[in-house]
């Protein structure tokens, strides 16, 4: 097969010949080749000479990863379509006549409508601390409700697990919370917005359940499935014909969108799952740091967590650089990236867009920014920069992670709105994603106190002071 894909090795070959109908799950650690396997699986299921052949859809969550997948996709995969979930959902509802112009609520509009809903509901109740919670609390709780496909007051009140990352909302407050959700939907609808990016999957699932027309795709493959909500997965299960297949590829250790999603909670019927522990991407030293992060308290009690096997490839220890201040971090990061990018692919990964702009301004057009509108993937030596989120599913020869300061990670605003436990869980997983993008070289920068999200074992690093 021509293209940019490495050949499947050892146990990876088994995935090509998993059952060609029904539901299957492949759970693997970072660097185990899940994305490569997803593309090979797509090739096998769409091969026109095979009796099981059918049009195949390869879906992921991250839009940057779609561009990367299209770059990797061999030319023979003409029967395979690659896109992200929300493009698929919007397109399907449009075909069904259920998607009007500009009818999906934008993130800033959503924030405004939810704030209005909280104020309107608060006005009819006695004063309560509940309504004074940070806006992010209500936004995330509504996201959780939609993501789990909850569509009634009674279902929400009775559901056993409510909240984000295990934070529970008392049952006596759930009716009030659901009232806020209903008011938000009312305000949103009155402004011509039928959906937001969280509840669109509910409408897709319901539409498929009523749709008796032939399915467009016989096979659907989900890459980075841990970032899909349970309701997204349910909608995809409804999108295939009876003789079709749904293949789920995921790594729960990289779950960064707050779902704590297991394929079990999505209701998939999977008689057997395939586990991939071997790390083919990272050197032994980088993999050991990733493993140490995955063993920290904020990873405890994660369902389906696959602990990686350390690879045999040897390399240098991750470099931990203590700088005098953030300006020095930026200066040295830029110098290191420009020097190494002559022969290596180098990624500068940061927490958020505000930090990303620091490097965008300095690098200009001489680097590739990882973002949702990236249309072409330029492989080979060069500088890439973006957020941890944008780097999902990608890999680079060298990864540079600045601003690993205690006052930056975990995020202080997130701690204020969600609590310390949730902040550690979210940002700890983000850091795991960043670290495991590096194939051969990893450089970590900080000034002041080091983030508590990194292991304290000094044998994991080579420490440097400029």
Characterize the structure shown.
The protein is of the alpha/beta class. 36% of the residues lie in helices and 15% in strands. The protein has a seven-stranded parallel sheet, covered by helices on one side. Strands 3-2-4-5-1-6 form a six-stranded parallel sheet. Helix 10 links the parallel strand 4 and strand 5 (245-250). Mean pLDDT is 87; it is low at 162-167.
Q: How much helicity do the residues have?
A: 25-40%
Query: What's the overall average pLDDT, rounded?
Result: 87
Multimeric status of the protein: single chain
Name the strands of the widest sheet in spatial order.
Answer: 9-10-8-11-12-7-13
Strand residues, percent: 5-15%
Number of separate helices? 15
Secondary-structure-derived class: alpha/beta
Shape, per Cα inertia axes: globular
List the uncertain runs.
Answer: 162-167
- Listing every helix as H and every strand as E from the N terminus to the C terminus, the arrangement reads HEHEHEHHHHHHEHEEHEHEHEEEHHEE
- How many strand segments? 13
Rg, alpha carbons? 22 Å
Calculate the terminal CA-CA distance, rounded to whole Å: 47 Å
Sheet with most strands: 7 strands, parallel
């Amino acid at each position: 097969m021509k293209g940019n894909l490495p050949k499947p090795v050892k146990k990876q070959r088994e995935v090509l010949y998993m059952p060609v109908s029904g539901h299957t799950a492949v759970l693997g650690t970072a660097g185990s080749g899940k994305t490569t396997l997803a593309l090979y699986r797509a090739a096998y299921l769409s091969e026109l000479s095979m009796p099981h052949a059918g049009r195949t859809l390869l879906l992921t969550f991250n839009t940057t990863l779609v561009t990367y997948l299209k770059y990797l996709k061999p030319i023979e995969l003409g029967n395979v379509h690659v896109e992200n979930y929300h493009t698929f959902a919007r397109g399907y509802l449009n075909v069904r006549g259920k998607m009007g112009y500009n009818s999906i609520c934008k993130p800033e509009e959503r924030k405004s409508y939810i704030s209005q809903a909280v104020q309107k509901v608060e006005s009819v109740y006695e004063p309560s601390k509940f309504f004074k919670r940070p806006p992010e609390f209500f936004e995330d709780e509504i996201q959780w409700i939609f993501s789990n496909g909850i569509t009634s007051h009674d279902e929400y009140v009775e559901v056993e697990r409510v909240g984000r990352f295990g934070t529970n909302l008392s049952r006596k407050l759930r009716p009030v919370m659901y009232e806020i959700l209903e008011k938000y939907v009312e305000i949103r609808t009155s402004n011509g917005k039928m959906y937001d990016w969280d509840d669109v999957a509910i409408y897709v699932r319901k539409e498929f359940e009523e749709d008796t027309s032939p399915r467009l795709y016989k096979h659907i493959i989900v890459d980075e499935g841990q970032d899909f909500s349970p309701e997204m997965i349910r909608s995809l299960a409804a999108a295939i014909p009876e003789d079709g297949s749904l293949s789920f590829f995921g790594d729960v250790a990289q779950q960064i969108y707050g779902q704590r999603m297991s394929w079990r909670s999505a209701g998939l019927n999977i008689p057997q799952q395939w586990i991939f522990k071997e790390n083919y991407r990272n050197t032994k030293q980088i993999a050991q740091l990733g493993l140490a992060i995955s063993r920290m308290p904020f990873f405890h009690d994660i369902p389906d967590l696959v602990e990686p096997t350390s690879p045999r490839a040897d390399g240098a220890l991750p470099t931990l650089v203590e700088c005098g201040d953030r300006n020095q971090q930026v200066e040295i990061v830029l110098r290191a990236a420009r020097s190494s990018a002559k022969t290596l692919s180098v990624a500068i990964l940061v927490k958020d867009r505000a930090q990303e702009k620091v490097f965008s301004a300095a690098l200009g057009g001489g680097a590739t920014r990882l973002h949702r509108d990236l249309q072409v993937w330029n492989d080979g030596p060069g500088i890439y920069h973006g957020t941890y989120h944008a780097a999902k599913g990608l890999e680079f020869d060298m990864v540079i992670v600045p601003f690993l300061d205690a006052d930056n990670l975990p995020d202080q605003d997130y701690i204020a709105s969600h609590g310390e436990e949730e902040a550690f869980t979210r940002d700890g997983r983000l850091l795991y994603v960043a670290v495991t993008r590096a194939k051969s070289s990893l450089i970590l920068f900080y000034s002041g106190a080091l983030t508590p999200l990194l292991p304290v074992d000094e044998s994991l690093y080579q420490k440097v002071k400029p």
